[in-house]
Design goal:
9 helices; 2 strands; 3% strand; mainly alpha
Length: 141
């Protein structure tokens, strides 16, 4: 990936507010569409879902924006299953994958802001990562 495009993408997801992210997003699309039309079209199509993390507590943003935990677990399982190919039945392979994931789970970190998940589940509104109280909701309306 070109360094300038990478920096522009970082400017989008590292913005502190949704408005700043939209500005960076529009700037990125405008700047790189001539050179990378298909990539920018793909980004523009998924704009709302890519920036949906602004509707959640700021403490959870880091966890929402990354897929590293999933990729790490699957890499471990893939490595072991590739090494033991054709050694055992489907049942033993599934059991091995389960035990590998169970072992990996012990090393996982607790979510930052995990206590705020109850608010998310009950439908409390967050704007730019900040919990909205009743007074703030009325002022926004």
């Amino acid at each position: 990936m070109q360094p300038k495009v990478k920096k522009a993408l970082h400017d989008i997801w590292q913005a502190s507010t949704r408005e700043e992210a939209y500005q960076a997003f529009d700037h990125c699309i405008e700047r790189f569409s001539p050179k990378y039309p298909k990539a920018m079209e793909c980004l523009a199509k998924d704009k709302a879902s890519m920036l949906a993390f602004y509707d959640y507590p700021a403490e959870n943003w880091q966890h929402i924006r990354t897929t590293n935990p999933v990729e790490s677990v699957f890499a471990t399982v893939r490595l072991r299953t590739d090494k033991t190919r054709n050694c055992g039945s489907r049942t033993t392979t599934l059991a091995m994958a389960f035990k590998l994931m169970e072992t990996a789970q012990k090393k996982w970190f607790r979510l930052r802001g995990y206590k705020l998940l109850a608010d998310v589940i009950t439908g409390v509104k967050f704007v730019n990562g900040i919990k909205q109280s009743g007074d703030q909701k009325q002022a926004a309306a």
